[in-house]
Write a structure and sequence with these properties.
The protein has six helices and no strands. With about 180 residues, it is mainly alpha-helical.
Length: about 180
């Protein structure tokens, strides 16, 4: 066994011991964002309104980034669970905001394609995320997927800001886009 592999194994054990993660606790932490998605459903109608959709998207992506960093930095199991709750709530808000935004800005001729593309990308991401996380854990530690997800969310935030700035220049969308 190489030195770097041995060091990686020690780091993995330290990460798991630091949070005192058992298989059951890990399962709860993994399930929690999905549970929060279900609990957030009644609030989506009030929060994700067409007139506030850009703000909701930007705030949700920002909170997703921060919650991923907080999961990485968690010093105990309670902190991890709180960050996972915030992640779940902001994830459903971001996904709902994207759908509403697409309905709002799409030209009626392209709406079906735009919505289908959005759903396809979301489903691919939901499929790839656990596989990627497992690969990252097997190569590093249980907390490194949080660093990776924070980077992905930050990239999504940057792309979203860029898209909002440039969306009026695109003919693919409706002329009724509100700034």
């Amino acid at each position: 066994q190489s030195r770097s592999s041995a060091a990686s194994d020690v780091y993995k054990r330290q990460s798991q011991l630091q949070l005192n993660l058992t298989e059951f606790k890990s399962a709860i932490a993994y399930l929690l964002p999905s549970l929060m998605v279900l609990l957030a459903m009644p609030f989506i109608r009030r929060i994700c309104t067409a007139e506030h959709i850009k703000k909701v998207m930007l705030i949700s992506l920002s909170v997703l980034t921060v919650s991923s960093v907080l999961q990485f930095m968690a010093q105990d199991y309670t902190q991890l669970l709180m960050a996972r709750c915030v992640l779940g709530m902001s994830l459903i808000m971001a996904m709902a905001a994207i759908d509403i935004f697409i309905f709002k800005v799409s030209d009626k001729r392209n709406l079906h394609f735009n919505y289908s593309l959005s759903i396809a990308v979301q489903n691919i991401a939901l499929f790839i995320a656990p596989i990627t996380a497992a690969g990252i854990v097997s190569q590093s530690s249980v907390d490194m997927p949080f660093v990776f997800s924070a980077a992905v969310y930050a990239l999504c935030l940057i792309i979203t800001v860029f898209a909002f700035i440039n969306i009026k220049k695109t003919q693919y969308f409706s002329k009724e886009v509100v700034a």
